[in-house]
Design a protein that fits this description.
This protein is α+β, with helices and mostly antiparallel strands and about 350 residues long. The chain has 8 helices and 17 strands. The longest helix is centred in the C-terminal third of the chain and has 31 residues. The structure holds FE2/S2 (inorganic) cluster and fe (ii) ion.
């Protein structure tokens, strides 16, 4: 039986909870960090930060993706400071240590044989990386299950909508003054549609919004009204990966934890390659921006109240908020806090 009340509010702003989440969740789950189309040739790379972890993703000379912690094995400088680019080797800007595209240390200028160190044991720290749906995922835990296993049945759900002719239409990023879970909670229910999303409410029958929660993901579905080509199915995979359908397009979304009270929401909207960009922007592009801005207006206000110390927890609807309940139960399991369920 799933829970009938929310997590208590301290989960949404405490630094110790945030640190625990980093250890127990974000260092163990597969996380979407970039797109394959950003890394087309050997030596092309992107860098990013995952909470406190600077990361490099690079395509090696055999066209395989590699990911490393962006930390030099000499004195911990970032080996690459650019956001993206193409390189033959990775050369640390501090003292010039040089790594090949597989992270192996090749050259240490002016460091001599009598210096007490073994070059072979100073490769970059490697991270697991895998691609699916043109997206790049990494996992900081080298012992973790494969991306395939992690996706489970959710991969099939996305595959129903994903086609190879989709191309990136745009990427939107918003830093939101809210804990990442405040954002996920909002995604995990359609109960707020009639009051928060007027246009979406005209297009779908929200009362018939359905959720199936299983194997660490939730599949949402809602029937559309006559004359609208909105939704169908969409969904979320724990902890922070989401896909949505907008008319002819598909959106992948992630909610990155930045700090206890801040998250970054990243949307990648894709359109079929034969659809005109301007036409798509005027319809699906505007639509998805409108819906996301409606959520973004509300969520920081909820966050403020979760921090204020007045509210502690509230009841969840057994009909409309099963996705929130599922998320909270799963979250507590991951943190080994079964007793709080
Ligand atoms: S820290 Fe990278 S070469 Fe010194
Ligand atoms: Fe919403």
């Amino acid at each position: 039986m799933s829970r009938t009340k929310t997590l208590s509010s301290d989960f949404y702003h405490s630094s110790s909870v945030f640190n625990q989440e980093t250890e127990s969740i974000f260092k163990n789950e597969w996380l979407w960090v970039g797109r394959s189309d950003q890394l087309t040739t050997s030596g092309s790379y992107i860098t990013t930060d995952l909470i406190n972890y600077p990361i490099i993703i690079v395509r090696d000379n055999s066209n395989n993706l590699k990911a490393f912690h962006n930390v030099c094995r000499h004195r911990a400088a970032k080996v690459i400071s650019n956001k993206e680019g193409v390189c033959k080797h990775m050369i640390c800007p501090y003292h010039g240590w040089k790594y090949d595209l597989n992270g192996k240390l090749m050259d240490t200028p002016k460091f001599y044989a009598n210096d007490d160190f073994e070059k072979d044991r100073h490769s970059l720290f490697e991270i697991s990386v895998a691609e699916r749906f043109g997206l790049i995922f990494i996992n900081l835990n080298k012992e973790s299950k494969s991306l395939d296993k992690w996706f489970g049945g959710f991969e099939k759900i996305v595959s129903n909508y994903f086609t190879d002719n989709l191309i990136l239409h745009n990427e939107l990023r918003f830093d939101v003054h809210a804990n990442w879970k405040t954002y996920v909670d909002n995604y995990q229910e359609g109960y707020h549609i009639p009051l928060v999303h007027p246009q979406l409410n005209r297009d779908v029958v929200w009362q018939e919004y359905k959720l199936e929660n299983m194997n660490e993901y939730s599949v949402h579905s809602v029937p559309d009204r006559a004359n609208s080509n909105q939704p169908g199915s969409f969904g979320w995979h724990f902890p922070n990966f989401i896909f949505n359908i907008y008319g002819r397009g598909i959106v992948f979304q992630r909610i990155e934890p930045l700090k206890p009270k801040w998250c970054r929401v990243v949307y990648n909207l894709f359109r079929p390659s034969d659809v005109d960009a301007e036409d798509f922007e005027n319809k699906e592009g505007k639509y998805q921006l409108e819906v996301s801005l409606e959520d973004q207006k509300l969520i920081p206000e909820i966050q403020q109240n979760l921090q204020a110390g007045i509210y502690n927890e509230g009841p969840l609807s057994k009909k409309y908020e099963t996705g929130v309940a599922y998320f909270h139960d799963l979250y507590l399991t991951k943190l080994n806090l079964e007793n709080k369920k």
